[in-house]
Amino acid sequence: MNFQDGSLFPENQEPLVITCAPYGPEWMPSDFPEDIPVSMADQIQKAVDCYNAGATVLHLHVREEDGKGSKRLSKFNELLAGIRARVPDLILQVGGSISFAPEGDGEVAKWLSDDTRHMLAELLPTPDQVTIAINTNQMNVVEQMCEADIAGTSLASPAGYRAYREMTIPAGPEWVEEHIRRLSAKGIQTHFQLANITQLETVERMMRRGVCNVPLILTWVAIGGGFDAPNLYNLANFVRAVPDGAVLTLETSMLNVLPLNMMAIAMGLHVRCGIEDNIWQQDRQAKMGTVRQIEQLVRISREFGRPVADGKEARRIYRIGEFYGSAEQTLAKNGFAPNRRHGQRGFLQHA
């Protein structure tokens, strides 16, 4: 991305899109009973509350009545329908992991089979987005957490800690290309959850081959454990590699969330918050629910002078419903250089 003179002025930035992740499948309800919704009615109400607070993208997982993360597509359909009826402008983003929570005590958290994840393209009502991982990768979500992050929670138990320490993401090239094809055929936008520049480069190569003709709407997930660490150098390198036509959100975990989001607000990027990422205030004196986290970001963004997007603005910024007919169009719309024609020399530019 290019940062010319004036790039940090709010009048030269899009309104801020706030993604919220209020369902937190790695936690048990006993970890934060005041904020983790369990009944279907409470899960729907949580989405409404987040939208009313200022979030316009909802990262969605579902719980069963016993509080465990659901892997039933029928439960996803029920939640999607309930939210769509209450807040139709909210962008519904289904987490492609389909609740990575362990099945039972002592088991490792894992993503479901390739065939099951493909079924996310059949959800009804149709979500606006499904997140996708690129390249099979370690996802040790507890690696950069400290004892204070998990004190008194289910992750502090040896079994809970190991379950998430040993998690991996299955995302090979054949599955990824087929998944994007199925989502696009159903009018569902692919939202890329990327761990580092190598995964971004894989997405670019897919676009150059014409097997990924979609907007580059992506999140940099800086959580360590196989993903980038949330430091300034990794951030600068990743942002520099992202083309100007992309829409970039920053994501990290625990007490890194607020400072990284402040950087995103200042730079004209977009933010994500919620108990899936962090449950603590910055002083660790108390836990902080998703709605309060959203309200905090709304307040900070307004202090920066940057307005917060409403639902219709977020849909425009995210290019919901937009797909492309060729590799050439995809590259141009996303801000990548064109493919090199046979015999062409020198630097590449669009006509």
UniProtKB/TrEMBL annotation:
Keywords from the named record:
Metal-binding, Transferase, Zinc
Q: Please name the Gene3D superfamilies in this protein's record.
A: Aldolase class I
Q: Which cofactor does it need?
A: Zn(2+)
Q: Which InterPro entries match?
A: Aldolase_TIM, BKACE
Q: List the Pfam families hit by this protein, alphabetically.
A: BKACE
Q: Which domain of life is it from?
A: Bacteria
> What's the protein name?
3-keto-5-aminohexanoate cleavage protein
